[in-house]
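Re: [help] complex structure
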Amino acid sequence: MSFNQIIFIIFSSMLLENVILSQFLGICSFLGVSKSRKSAVGMGLSVVAVIVLATTVTWLIYNYVLVLFDLVYLKTIVFILVIASLVQIIEIIIKKFVPSLYKSLGIYLPLITTNCAVLGVAIKASQNGLTFFNMLLYALGSGLGFLLIMFIFSFLREELEKRKVPKAMSGIPIALVVASILAIIFSRYVGIVKEDEGEKEKELPRTANVISMHLTPSDEYLDNIIRRMK
Amino acid sequence: MKKNLITGLVLSVFALICGLLLSVVNMFTAPVIEARTEEKINNSIMEVCEVYKNNKDTYTIDKESIKHDEVDSVYLVKDENGEKVEVIYVVSAKGYASTIQMMISVTKEHKIERSVVISSAETKGDIKTHDFMMDGKDSLADFDKLSGSTISSKAVRKCFYTALDLSYEDLK
Amino acid sequence: MATKYLVTNAPYLRSADHGRSTHTVMRDLLIGLSPVILFAIFKNVIMVFIKGTYVSVLQAIYPLITLIVGPLTSALIEMLCLFIMKRKEITKFSDLLEEVKNGFGFFPGLFIVLISPVYINMWVLIVSIAVGEVVGKMLFGGFGQNIFNPAIIGRAFMAFSFSNLIGVSCFDPSMNSYLNAYEASVVDAVAGATPLIRYSTLTDVSYVGAVEPFGNLLDFFLGTIPGCLGETSFLACLIGCIYLSVRKVIDYKVPLIYVSVVFLNTLVAGLFMGQGIWYPTFQILSGGLMFGAVYMATEPVTSPKTNLGRAMNAMMLGVLTVLFRLVGNNPEGVATAIVTMNIFGLVINRYVVRVRVDGKLDKNEIPGLVIFLSIFVLIFIYNIIMIV
Amino acid sequence: MTKKENFLKGFIKENPLFVLLLGTCPALAITTSLENAFGMGIAFIFVLVMSNTIISLINSFKKLKELIQPVRIAVYIVIIASLVTIVEMIMQAYLPDLYNSLGVFISLITVNCIVLGRAEAYASQNTVSDSVIDGISMGLGYTLALIIISLIREFLGNGTITIWGDLQINLQGVFEFLHITPISFFTSSAGAFMVLGIVLAIMQAIKNSKDAKEKEAKKQEKEVK
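Output below.
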């Protein structure tokens, strides 16, 4: 896996396939907590940590227990238990070792159990058969995407408070409209991150037809084709 | 300590009961789901393979007579004399965050006849109806781009490559 | 928190200082826009009439119709919204008119027309103007309250939901809507619609491939190249910019920094591609860069209020525009950059004002600042990596 | 609260989506067609009613209630998750197309705040029959909200209204009559946010005007007195 590929996965899951704006996961906490920046950033950071940990654990359980014993249908129940206990464990650990952090993050941790972003990313990562490394990057990117939107949105919400928003629109409705505008803007970022083009050559199969493509095949590859044609 | 143990026990009893219940339901639904999948695959074969659809009585389809690492399964279409007419591949395209499974039929002339998406875990529904514009092509020069989806065009492209490539071996 | 300065959303801080009303500003803005509008009419209506390549008279005067319909639609929708929202306060029709006039009601529509293709479908235009006006402006509370630039919201909506209709001329579906009747008969089909769209399809960058199909760089400067209705002429935007800066309606530093950052950035990119000085010149002359820099990036409501904030904003705009143009699938890039900076402008404004007012940052603000700065730095690094 | 009031509250007064703002994720994600809204609604009602029943049943035994008190949330989640899985399996077996289009959001009913919220706030403290009525009411109210949003989105975005399977009303003629095409924006993610925002704003406006009227009425009453 090249550096470019790593960047591609993280940025794509962060910007283009953003958990909130394009996959609609974690909207409840997004609308509920984005009002003050401190809580938005706190929530975002805890979600990043929990998503990465929970996805890793559930991925391992899914691939090495559930699939092997043919118990895939138990995934929802197992995943949610894993997430709930993980959140509990993290809470205990933080409370014991970093009390100052617990003070600022503590109240958001229990909320994360019912944040559908965590369960959603965990289910998607396991079900779609990602490799371990891809899964890690995907989880990290998704978490960072959540954090980014929470961060941006805390500013927007704060700004909206100052504006003379009509009474009917104030609060959640205008926040949703702004989210819609953000979704439009984010959709324009397609192509900013590009997949590694260099890998394409290596992956070329041995078909003779490929000659007609725009790519310039390597010598070894051409030899292969000529051998085949004979 | 004892209290904790009891609560833990209660929780596991609940989990166990639920697990058992689920396995009972699974026992009933699993065969139905399997039958559905099979039916779907049969329908897809009809859709991608015109020759077989028109000559159901005389033509035969062999499943998994050949094994390749790159594809999920292979179906060979033979006419009444046992000549190979077409080959159908079930291939999975893996993007960074989702997978789609599609069926690609390749003719004797090593041209892609048709392709359909069997299952997809894409967030957006449009990929199911997405036409990859590959029908009747024997090279991939003008491949329609799938931008903005978790399935990169590269992954789908690779599926078509693989199908075309393997057809040289399988249709000998 | 002790505040030495009053930070409000008042749209024109300076105009208040100078004792000018929004009416004067509006008149200035109209005069500042007039070179662009006049040039658009000259190029797309008068020239077409002179060359006589139009199919019907309606097609020849279509740009003129859009230039009238756009602002009118915008003003009407604003009136309607105001009527619904402030039913109790407004009783007379003249009050309503006054309100629309004070709220610059017809400007979003005018801007959307100027940054749309020449032969855009009328209903697409009207729907986009309605969305820009309502969603971008009125839902936030009207003039001076908007967070995003309403015109760009409308244009982005158009690009987002009418991607199949936007490039198609409403007179002949086989024709490109960016080319006026005269250009459609002159520019060959291979050349593609606008210089930037053609550029984005080029595999080899060269002067012959990018510039020559449309004339030479002087044509780019004057604006006799295909493109959106009002944004092709660098010269007209420059005249407008000078007038508006002299009248102190806009801050001349913003377009200056914006355009020079784009120039420098593309100069470096061009050097790595083995291109000469024509390449950055081509990049700053084509597309809506100058129009966006003069009339949209400077919009007082949505841009930061301090000098430092504005400079940072303009710099980021330049970096993002080049990023979108050269790396993204987005041949234009200016609108996306401006609307992106509408968001980050808030962040910049917030921190810069805070530091100015309090002399230091609140402890609670630091995680946010770190996130923001890391985004900022990441974009810079990414930009450098990608263009090299 | 009478049984009738209990039943009617979920539709307008305590509508889970429009008033309580719960369960927004599926309301944005799957409302691209009316069929999806129906499917989601049925799945949701089943889960909600069953979980309410089971949880109020468990809580009606005092001994059991005390026993699970420290881990009650976990127990509730386990019960809800298994109910969701049952729905998922049945749907996959008998309604595969719907299952495919709802995707991951069926599994996500597990963490839908409405289900857990009703379990914790209502079912654990009320009788079984009340809880069942509450579940039906909340579920129907949520389904109603989903239907409203999906009607708007499907009509404007696609020009059709899909009731179930092939049963589809084609309204593209309306668009053709106006010489326009459906606006795909409404079926996209940005459109989802926008539609929900506007619908909520309309609800809020109605509520505001109602409040204002009530205030005025009270004022007048005072003056009369």
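Residues 189-224 of chain D form the longest helix (36 residues).
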